[in-house]
Each structure stands twice: as C-alpha cells, then as structure tokens.
Amino acid sequence: MAKGKLIVFSAPSGSGKTTIVRHLLTQEELSLDFSISATSRQPRGQEQNGKDYYFLSPDEFKAKINEDAFLEWEEVYENTYYGTLKSELERIWSLGKHVVFDIDVVGGLNIKKQFPEETLAVFVKPPSIEEMEKRLRHRQTDAEEKIIERVAKAEKELSYAKDFDVVLVNDDLEVAKKDAFEMIANFTKK
Fold it and tell me: What's the pTM value of the predicted model, to 2 decimals?
C-alpha cells in the first residue's frame, strides 16, 4: 500500500478550520480524503456516526486505547476523548489519497512528530479571540458554559501556533481557502 501525505489542520474552535477543510475536500485535483476522528462526546446538530466522527462511549474509547488502535488520542475535556484511529490512515491510503485531519493542536503535533517528513501541519488562527467567540455564539450549537470553556482553551491553544509548519490567519475566508489550496498543492507535489 502506497503512503500519501498527511495534512493536519488544527485550531481553536471557531477559527474556521472545518469550513476550510470541507472546501479543500471538494477540490478533486488535490486527491484528499478526510480522516474521521473518534470521540466520546455526543453528536452535535446534524453530525452522523461514521461521517463526521466515530462516536464511542467513554468506555469504548478507553478499550480502543488499551488495544493500541489509535495513532493519537487525547482527553480534551474531562471524560471527553478525541483521537485518530490507525485504520483511518490505512483506509485513505488504500484509496491512493492524501489524509486530511481536522483535529486539536496536541493531536496535530503528535501526528507531525510521528510522520515529520510526510506531514504538513497548518494552524488556522482566528483574527482575534473576540471574533472567535462571536463565531462560536453564531453557531448556536454549544451551551454558554461550553463556549466559555472553549474560549479559555483557545487562549492556551494559540500558544502552540509557533510549533506548526504554517500559520494561516483566517480573517477573510475566501483568501484563507485559496492560500490553503496553494500550500497543499505545493506540498503534495513533493
């Protein structure tokens, strides 16, 4: 099985990374497929198991940790786990495509450490914490205490930006999409 490249997108919630990733996945010439993360949280809105995430109970998630089924995983919030199943890389590489991740900063850096030459790690930075909070509120998918928790976490996550290959500031979504396309096209040609 040929191995493709790994494209990691990490950012605080509300930065626009998921919107950018969804756009890139529609660009057929990039030959990308989405690595579906596993999580122990409940689905939000219209999220579907096996499409947006693999939704596992906390006990199921812990069992997979014990089976060494994860490439990377983290307890992001108390008893709320996120991770990347090794089987996702195998699935996508068997299709002859490059893997795109939309994951938290620690998970993104863990993948970069394991595959330093094959990974492009992109940190999507919101124009400001205030704008990010506004975007989270506009989504209307989280309770107030979750928004406060995400904003506090974002301040810590922003300190990791320097550890990524590229910092993509998303103050104009169309420009950010174009810049992301160009950087991935150049990276996957190598």
Answer: 0.85
